[in-house]
């Protein structure tokens, strides 16, 4: 294993984000063990968060060196939904930044094998933007025997680096985060002709309208719907003198749409980026986290956001 270059030319001053797909125990061990040992040689904190199988393999290979890991944890307990998981991850990264000049993480997002965990691919994409200056190497482990083909395709599209057998190399399928999110969000279809469209000039007006428009069978989500729409309306009314509020039902989802004729969003990924504790801007993050899904269409002619609330 000594001929491998586990982190290539990474100098520890910014994020390196590698998607490693393995098909056998031997492939996993040959990639991860040198990665861990290199971290020990460089006196970097090494964190491993993985599923039971991966942890067992690494424990057998590392022996007494297992105790040198800064973290050795079960990934199975970490899933809290996309926003909740990223928020906890963000908190841990900021704590590490305060303590260490650089560190490395080998993580296996086992929840990608679950239907409700596939949204994590969107957060993997956004990490390339919101953590690009964080000084750590993120080696993301993906088991080809467990994950569906579409999830593995998303791994390539959301990780700038891949393993070429000897060193990290640029991933040719990698996409800009905004481009990936645009493709990953619910398909954008025309608003139904029968959907009510209300001009709104204040968030309170929108809240009152939604309290009436929400169907009786969905009243359990009233708080989420009203608060999420309020945040969108605050943003929309900051960009234009009025907004349009519309609602309809699409299959099992209640859809809330807020549209404005402002200049468009400077960054369409904001709903997936944890708010900076220093500036307190959290509207889109909160709205996205309260909904079950979201989609955005933005440009010079304005912005339209749709939130989906399932029963």
UniProtKB/TrEMBL annotation:
Transmembrane segments: none annotated. CDD domains: HATPase_RsbW-like. InterPro entries: HATPase_C_sf (IPR036890), HATPase_dom (IPR003594), MEDS_domain (IPR025847), RsbA-like_anti_sig (IPR047718). It comes from Geodermatophilus arenarius. Residues 220-307 form the Histidine kinase/HSP90-like ATPase domain. This is Anti-sigma factor RsbA family regulatory protein. Coiled coil: none annotated. It comes from the Bacteria. Pfam families: HATPase_c_2, MEDS. Residues 17-160 form the MEDS domain.
């Amino acid at each position: 294993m000594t001929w491998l270059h586990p982190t290539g030319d990474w100098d520890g001053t910014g994020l390196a984000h590698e998607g490693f797909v393995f098909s056998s125990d031997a492939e996993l061990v040959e990639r991860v063990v040198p990665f861990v040992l290199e971290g020990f040689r460089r006196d970097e904190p090494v964190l491993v968060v993985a599923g039971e199988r991966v942890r067992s393999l690494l424990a057998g290979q590392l022996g007494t060196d297992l105790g040198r890991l800064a973290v050795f944890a079960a990934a199975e307990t970490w899933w809290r939904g996309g926003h909740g998981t990223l928020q906890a991850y963000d908190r841990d990264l900021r704590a590490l930044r305060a303590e260490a000049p650089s560190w490395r993480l080998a993580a296996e997002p086992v929840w990608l094998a679950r239907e409700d965990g596939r949204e994590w691919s969107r957060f993997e994409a956004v990490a390339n933007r919101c953590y690009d200056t964080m000084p750590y190497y993120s080696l993301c482990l993906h088991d080809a025997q467990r994950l569906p083909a579409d999830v593995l395709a998303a791994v390539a599209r959301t990780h700038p680096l891949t393993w070429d057998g000897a060193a990290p190399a640029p991933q040719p399928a990698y996409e800009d985060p905004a481009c990936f999110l645009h493709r990953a969000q619910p398909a954008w279809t025309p608003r139904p002709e029968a959907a009510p469209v209300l001009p709104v000039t204040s968030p309170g007006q929108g809240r009152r309208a939604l309290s009436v428009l929400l169907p009786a069978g969905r009243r359990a989500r009233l708080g989420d719907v009203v608060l999420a729409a309020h945040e969108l309306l605050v943003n929309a009314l900051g960009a234009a003198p009025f907004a349009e509020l519309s609602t309809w039902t699409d299959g099992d989802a209640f859809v809330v749409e807020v549209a404005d004729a402002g200049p468009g969003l400077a960054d369409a990924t904001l709903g997936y980026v944890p708010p900076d504790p220093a500036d307190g801007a959290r509207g889109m993050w909160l709205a996205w986290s309260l909904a079950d899904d979201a989609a955005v269409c933005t440009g010079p002619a304005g912005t339209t956001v749709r939130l989906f609330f399932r029963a």
